[in-house]
Design goal:
- The chain is α+β, with helices and mostly antiparallel strands.
- It has helices spanning about 1-15, 60-70, 130-135, 195-205; strands spanning about 25-30, 30-40, 45-50, 70-80, 95, 100, 120-125, 125-130, 145-150, 150-155, 155-160, 170-175, 185-190, 210-215, 220-225, 230, 240-245.
- It has a seven-stranded antiparallel beta sheet, with helices on one face. The chain has a five-stranded antiparallel beta sheet with strand order 3-17-4-15-16, with helices on one face. A five-stranded antiparallel beta sheet has the order 6-5-9-7-8.
- A hairpin with a 2-residue loop joins strand 10 (about 150-155) and strand 11.
- It is globular.
- The two termini are about 30 Å apart.
Length: about 250
Protein backbone atom coordinates (compact mmCIF):
# COMPACT_ATOMS: atom_id res chain seq x y z
CA UNK A 1 0.00 0.00 0.00
CA UNK A 2 2.76 2.48 0.89
CA UNK A 3 4.50 1.91 -2.45
CA UNK A 4 1.31 2.68 -4.42
CA UNK A 5 0.58 5.82 -2.42
CA UNK A 6 4.09 7.17 -2.96
CA UNK A 7 4.02 6.25 -6.65
CA UNK A 8 0.79 8.22 -7.07
CA UNK A 9 2.50 11.18 -5.43
CA UNK A 10 5.38 10.97 -7.90
CA UNK A 11 2.97 10.90 -10.84
CA UNK A 12 1.35 14.09 -9.57
CA UNK A 13 4.79 15.75 -9.46
CA UNK A 14 5.37 14.86 -13.10
CA UNK A 15 2.00 16.31 -14.10
CA UNK A 16 2.50 19.50 -12.12
CA UNK A 17 5.74 20.29 -13.97
CA UNK A 18 6.68 23.02 -11.49
CA UNK A 19 9.92 23.37 -9.54
CA UNK A 20 8.61 23.73 -6.01
CA UNK A 21 9.12 22.16 -2.62
CA UNK A 22 7.40 19.04 -4.03
CA UNK A 23 10.03 18.50 -6.75
CA UNK A 24 11.59 15.83 -4.49
CA UNK A 25 9.70 13.17 -2.55
CA UNK A 26 10.19 9.90 -0.71
CA UNK A 27 9.59 6.73 -2.72
CA UNK A 28 9.40 3.17 -1.38
CA UNK A 29 10.20 0.12 -3.51
CA UNK A 30 10.85 -3.50 -2.52
CA UNK A 31 11.17 -2.56 1.16
CA UNK A 32 13.84 0.06 0.40
CA UNK A 33 13.47 3.83 0.81
CA UNK A 34 14.62 6.38 -1.76
CA UNK A 35 14.38 10.10 -2.38
CA UNK A 36 13.32 10.89 -5.94
CA UNK A 37 13.49 14.26 -7.71
CA UNK A 38 12.07 15.11 -11.13
CA UNK A 39 12.79 17.65 -13.84
CA UNK A 40 10.60 18.23 -16.88
CA UNK A 41 11.12 19.57 -20.38
CA UNK A 42 11.13 23.36 -20.25
CA UNK A 43 12.69 23.54 -16.80
CA UNK A 44 16.25 24.81 -16.36
CA UNK A 45 18.24 21.65 -15.63
CA UNK A 46 22.01 22.12 -15.90
CA UNK A 47 25.38 20.49 -15.27
CA UNK A 48 28.01 22.30 -13.20
CA UNK A 49 31.74 21.62 -12.92
CA UNK A 50 33.92 24.76 -12.78
CA UNK A 51 33.23 28.35 -11.82
CA UNK A 52 34.01 31.45 -13.90
CA UNK A 53 37.65 31.29 -12.75
CA UNK A 54 38.06 27.65 -13.77
CA UNK A 55 38.02 26.24 -10.22
CA UNK A 56 35.81 23.25 -9.49
CA UNK A 57 32.64 24.18 -7.63
CA UNK A 58 32.95 21.07 -5.48
CA UNK A 59 29.83 21.77 -3.42
CA UNK A 60 26.17 22.64 -3.71
CA UNK A 61 26.75 25.79 -1.65
CA UNK A 62 29.26 27.19 -4.14
CA UNK A 63 26.89 26.56 -7.05
CA UNK A 64 24.10 28.29 -5.13
CA UNK A 65 26.37 31.25 -4.37
CA UNK A 66 27.23 31.65 -8.07
CA UNK A 67 23.57 31.42 -9.10
CA UNK A 68 22.55 33.92 -6.42
CA UNK A 69 24.29 36.73 -8.29
CA UNK A 70 21.59 36.44 -10.97
CA UNK A 71 18.70 35.89 -8.55
CA UNK A 72 18.60 32.13 -8.97
CA UNK A 73 19.01 29.09 -6.74
CA UNK A 74 19.10 25.28 -6.91
CA UNK A 75 15.70 23.65 -6.44
CA UNK A 76 17.60 20.36 -6.12
CA UNK A 77 21.01 18.98 -7.09
CA UNK A 78 23.15 15.84 -6.80
CA UNK A 79 26.54 14.55 -7.85
CA UNK A 80 26.39 13.65 -11.54
CA UNK A 81 29.20 11.33 -12.59
CA UNK A 82 32.50 9.88 -11.47
CA UNK A 83 35.61 12.01 -11.08
CA UNK A 84 39.34 11.91 -10.33
CA UNK A 85 40.99 13.22 -7.16
CA UNK A 86 41.32 16.66 -8.74
CA UNK A 87 37.53 16.52 -9.38
CA UNK A 88 37.95 16.33 -13.15
CA UNK A 89 35.45 13.97 -14.86
CA UNK A 90 36.45 10.37 -15.55
CA UNK A 91 34.49 10.26 -18.81
CA UNK A 92 32.72 12.58 -21.21
CA UNK A 93 31.71 15.90 -19.76
CA UNK A 94 30.08 18.66 -21.78
CA UNK A 95 28.51 21.86 -20.49
CA UNK A 96 26.62 24.34 -22.70
CA UNK A 97 28.12 22.71 -25.76
CA UNK A 98 31.72 22.95 -24.52
CA UNK A 99 33.48 19.60 -23.99
CA UNK A 100 35.81 19.36 -20.99
CA UNK A 101 36.52 15.61 -21.25
CA UNK A 102 36.19 13.17 -24.15
CA UNK A 103 34.01 10.06 -24.36
CA UNK A 104 35.63 6.87 -22.99
CA UNK A 105 34.49 3.73 -24.83
CA UNK A 106 36.86 1.08 -23.44
CA UNK A 107 36.26 -1.20 -20.47
CA UNK A 108 38.23 -0.48 -17.33
CA UNK A 109 38.45 -0.95 -13.58
CA UNK A 110 35.74 0.08 -11.18
CA UNK A 111 32.07 0.74 -11.75
CA UNK A 112 32.66 3.26 -14.55
CA UNK A 113 34.33 0.59 -16.68
CA UNK A 114 31.62 -2.03 -16.05
CA UNK A 115 30.29 -1.99 -19.61
CA UNK A 116 27.81 -1.12 -20.87
CA UNK A 117 28.01 2.35 -19.36
CA UNK A 118 26.34 5.47 -20.68
CA UNK A 119 25.80 9.21 -20.91
CA UNK A 120 23.16 11.43 -19.34
CA UNK A 121 22.19 13.99 -21.95
CA UNK A 122 20.34 17.29 -21.48
CA UNK A 123 18.89 18.66 -24.71
CA UNK A 124 17.08 21.93 -25.26
CA UNK A 125 13.90 19.92 -25.87
CA UNK A 126 14.30 17.07 -23.37
CA UNK A 127 16.56 14.41 -21.86
CA UNK A 128 18.15 11.08 -22.71
CA UNK A 129 20.26 8.31 -21.21
CA UNK A 130 22.36 6.96 -24.08
CA UNK A 131 24.50 3.81 -23.99
CA UNK A 132 28.12 4.80 -24.71
CA UNK A 133 28.58 2.96 -28.02
CA UNK A 134 25.31 4.43 -29.29
CA UNK A 135 26.51 7.87 -28.25
CA UNK A 136 29.79 7.33 -30.11
CA UNK A 137 27.90 6.22 -33.22
CA UNK A 138 26.08 9.51 -33.76
CA UNK A 139 25.36 13.00 -32.49
CA UNK A 140 22.56 12.83 -29.89
CA UNK A 141 22.33 16.63 -29.77
CA UNK A 142 23.25 17.14 -26.12
CA UNK A 143 23.71 20.62 -24.73
CA UNK A 144 25.05 19.18 -21.46
CA UNK A 145 26.32 15.62 -21.07
CA UNK A 146 27.94 13.53 -18.33
CA UNK A 147 29.26 9.99 -18.81
CA UNK A 148 29.11 7.50 -15.96
CA UNK A 149 28.56 3.83 -15.39
CA UNK A 150 27.32 1.27 -15.32
CA UNK A 151 23.98 1.57 -17.08
CA UNK A 152 21.27 0.52 -14.63
CA UNK A 153 18.49 -0.13 -17.15
CA UNK A 154 19.03 -0.67 -20.88
CA UNK A 155 15.93 -0.75 -23.08
CA UNK A 156 13.89 -2.02 -20.14
CA UNK A 157 16.42 -4.70 -19.05
CA UNK A 158 18.73 -4.61 -16.05
CA UNK A 159 22.48 -4.49 -16.63
CA UNK A 160 23.56 -8.10 -17.39
CA UNK A 161 26.29 -8.08 -14.71
CA UNK A 162 23.98 -7.26 -11.78
CA UNK A 163 23.60 -10.08 -9.24
CA UNK A 164 20.30 -10.45 -7.42
CA UNK A 165 22.04 -11.87 -4.33
CA UNK A 166 25.02 -9.49 -4.27
CA UNK A 167 26.33 -8.46 -0.86
CA UNK A 168 27.80 -5.18 -2.19
CA UNK A 169 25.65 -2.47 -0.65
CA UNK A 170 26.16 1.29 -0.77
CA UNK A 171 24.12 4.45 -0.75
CA UNK A 172 23.73 4.97 -4.52
CA UNK A 173 22.40 7.65 -6.85
CA UNK A 174 21.50 7.82 -10.52
CA UNK A 175 19.12 9.10 -13.17
CA UNK A 176 16.48 7.64 -15.46
CA UNK A 177 14.59 9.17 -18.35
CA UNK A 178 11.00 8.62 -19.47
CA UNK A 179 10.37 6.91 -22.81
CA UNK A 180 9.32 10.18 -24.45
CA UNK A 181 12.32 12.09 -23.07
CA UNK A 182 10.23 14.70 -21.29
CA UNK A 183 11.12 13.67 -17.72
CA UNK A 184 14.48 13.18 -16.02
CA UNK A 185 14.05 11.29 -12.74
CA UNK A 186 16.88 11.38 -10.19
CA UNK A 187 17.06 8.99 -7.24
CA UNK A 188 19.26 8.45 -4.23
CA UNK A 189 18.87 5.56 -1.82
CA UNK A 190 18.21 6.45 1.81
CA UNK A 191 20.30 3.47 2.87
CA UNK A 192 22.71 0.93 1.35
CA UNK A 193 21.32 -0.99 -1.64
CA UNK A 194 22.70 -3.39 -4.26
CA UNK A 195 22.99 -2.56 -7.95
CA UNK A 196 20.18 -5.04 -8.63
CA UNK A 197 17.85 -3.33 -6.16
CA UNK A 198 18.75 0.10 -7.49
CA UNK A 199 18.17 -0.95 -11.09
CA UNK A 200 14.80 -2.45 -10.18
CA UNK A 201 13.79 0.86 -8.62
CA UNK A 202 14.15 2.61 -11.98
CA UNK A 203 12.77 -0.23 -14.11
CA UNK A 204 9.97 -1.62 -11.96
CA UNK A 205 9.24 1.10 -9.42
CA UNK A 206 9.51 4.15 -11.66
CA UNK A 207 8.80 2.46 -15.00
CA UNK A 208 11.76 4.01 -16.82
CA UNK A 209 13.30 2.21 -19.85
CA UNK A 210 16.77 3.76 -19.55
CA UNK A 211 18.72 4.59 -16.38
CA UNK A 212 22.32 5.40 -15.51
CA UNK A 213 24.34 5.03 -12.31
CA UNK A 214 26.07 8.18 -11.08
CA UNK A 215 28.01 6.92 -8.05
CA UNK A 216 27.89 5.15 -4.71
CA UNK A 217 29.12 5.75 -1.18
CA UNK A 218 29.88 9.46 -1.89
CA UNK A 219 26.34 10.05 -3.25
CA UNK A 220 24.75 13.29 -2.06
CA UNK A 221 21.52 15.24 -2.54
CA UNK A 222 20.69 18.91 -2.09
CA UNK A 223 16.93 19.36 -1.77
CA UNK A 224 16.06 22.43 0.32
CA UNK A 225 12.37 21.99 -0.40
CA UNK A 226 12.37 18.91 1.85
CA UNK A 227 14.92 20.29 4.29
CA UNK A 228 17.88 18.24 3.06
CA UNK A 229 21.39 19.20 1.95
CA UNK A 230 24.03 16.47 2.28
CA UNK A 231 27.64 17.43 2.87
CA UNK A 232 31.00 15.74 2.41
CA UNK A 233 34.28 15.94 0.51
CA UNK A 234 34.37 18.16 -2.61
CA UNK A 235 32.62 16.70 -5.66
CA UNK A 236 33.20 16.72 -9.41
CA UNK A 237 30.24 17.10 -11.81
CA UNK A 238 26.96 18.30 -10.29
CA UNK A 239 23.50 18.29 -11.88
CA UNK A 240 20.93 20.76 -10.64
CA UNK A 241 17.52 22.24 -11.38
CA UNK A 242 17.76 26.04 -11.39
CA UNK A 243 14.85 28.31 -10.42
CA UNK A 244 14.36 31.95 -9.55
CA UNK A 245 14.89 32.58 -5.85
CA UNK A 246 11.31 33.79 -5.35
CA UNK A 247 10.00 30.55 -6.92
CA UNK A 248 12.01 28.16 -4.74
CA UNK A 249 10.13 26.30 -2.05
CA UNK A 250 11.98 25.66 1.22
CA UNK A 251 10.81 23.28 3.92
CA UNK A 252 10.32 24.64 7.44
Amino acid sequence: MIRHVVRAGLASLWLAGGATADTCAKFAHDEQSYTVCTAATGQDLRLFLNDADGAAYGSFARVDAALGASGQVLAFAMNAGMYHRDRSPVGLYQERGEQAMRLITSAGPGNFGLLPNGVFCIRDDGFAVVETTDYAGGDPGCRDASQSGPMLVIDGALHPRFLENSDSRYVRNGVGVSADGTQAVFAISDGPVTFHEFGRLFRDGLGLPQALYFDGNISRLHAPGIGRSDWGLPMGPIVGLVVDIDAAGVAD
